[in-house]
Design goal:
Layout: E1 2-6, H1 7-17, E2 32-38, E3 41-47, E4 52-57, E5 60-63, E6 65-70, H2 71-80, E7 85-91, E8 94-99, E9 102-107, E10 124-129, H3 130-140, E11 155-170, E12 175-194, H4 195-204, E13 210-215, E14 220-221
Antiparallel strand pairs: 1-5, 1-7, 2-3, 2-6, 3-4, 7-8, 8-9, 10-13, 11-12, 13-14
Helix pairs in contact: 1-2
């Protein structure tokens, strides 16, 4: 694997995905970010086995490949560099990073050990403005229970019904609901999205444009 991209682009991408990289001692790979370079570009991914985040960064791929390194370590190092082009090359199972007159080597783990982030194959897909979804969440998420031991109320219910997308939340004392009309009729589907998942999405959500949402029985993709 070998690719070149700017310090700013990769640092920005790592700040998007690196927030959920865990501190697991039983599964050290969960501390890592998967870096995948191929013909379609450079992709970064992290997961804590509950949430998976992927993003694409711009750069020039000279040799396809994939590898994982600790997300916090590589981001901290990149933040020390000035804005410049940086080369990343996998040599003998180590990631060599060179640019801005410096060079470092990061040890990591094979990409084959990284957990697979599942893709929803048979879910119901819809698109709506980012502002609309943010507005629905602002009207409902405040009522989510903080008790993670009760997952049925520690999240927001997404309910697709006919031409409506309905969001609802409760902590057993308060109940909030908000809905929006969709452009097409959808099959009925319900899923409870954990509060932390929604918090992570709001952290990286775009200010403008449309959001693609896919809902299945037990998963959601935003």
């Amino acid at each position: 694997m070998k690719f070149i991209c700017t310090q700013e682009n990769l640092a920005r991408g790592l700040s998007v995905v690196g927030h959920i990289a865990g501190r697991s001692t039983t599964l050290p790979i969960l501390k890592n970010v998967l870096i995948k370079a191929g013909t379609e570009g450079i992709f970064l991914a992290t997961t804590n086995l509950e949430i998976g985040i992927t993003t694409q960064v711009r750069g020039r791929v000279e040799k396809p490949g994939e590898f994982t390194v600790q997300a916090r370590v590589i981001l901290d190092y990149l933040n020390l560099l000035p804005p410049s082009n940086v080369t990343f090359e996998l040599i003998n199972g180590e990631l060599v990073i060179s640019g801005a007159g410096s060079k470092t080597i990061l040890k990591g783990l094979p990409a084959e050990d990284f957990p697979v982030i599942p893709k929803i194959q048979d879910g119901i897909r819809l698109a709506l403005p980012a502002k609309t979804l943010k507005g629905l969440l602002s009207q409902t998420a405040f009522a989510v229970a903080s008790d993670e031991a009760r997952p049925e109320i520690n999240g927001v219910l997404f309910h697709l019904k006919d031409q409506d997308l309905i969001l609802a939340a409760t902590d057993s004392y308060r109940l909030s609901e908000a809905k929006t009309k969709l452009t097409t009729t959808k099959e009925e589907q319900k899923v409870i999205v954990p509060n932390r998942t929604l918090f992570e999405w709001l952290r990286i959500a775009p200010e403008e444009g449309e959001v693609s949402v896919t809902i299945s029985d037990n998963q959601i993709s935003l």
